[in-house]
């Protein structure tokens, strides 16, 4: 076995066949109001 990786498939890879994807951010940060509500709930517990 060789220590070098086999790059033959990478060299033949065609980027033009890839589809364009649209990334949507799903993990939004909480608002100040939400943070304050959480703090109040923790204090009550």
* Fraction of residues in helix: 25-40%
**SSE string:** HH
Report the span from N to C terminus.
61 Å
Beta-strand content estimate? under 5%
Protein described:
This protein has 45 residues and is an all-alpha fold. It has one domain (7-44). It is 38% helix and 0% strand. The protein is built from two helices and no strands. The protein has helices at residues 8-11, 32-44. It starts with 7 loop residues before the first helix and ends with a helix. 0% of the residues are buried.
Please render the helix and strand layout as text.
Elements: H1 8-11, H2 32-44
Descriptive labels:
actin monomer binding; single chain; mainly alpha; actin-binding; elongated; Thymosin beta; 45 residues; cytoskeleton
Compose a concise summary of this entry.
Pfam families: Thymosin. By secondary structure, this protein is mainly alpha-helical.
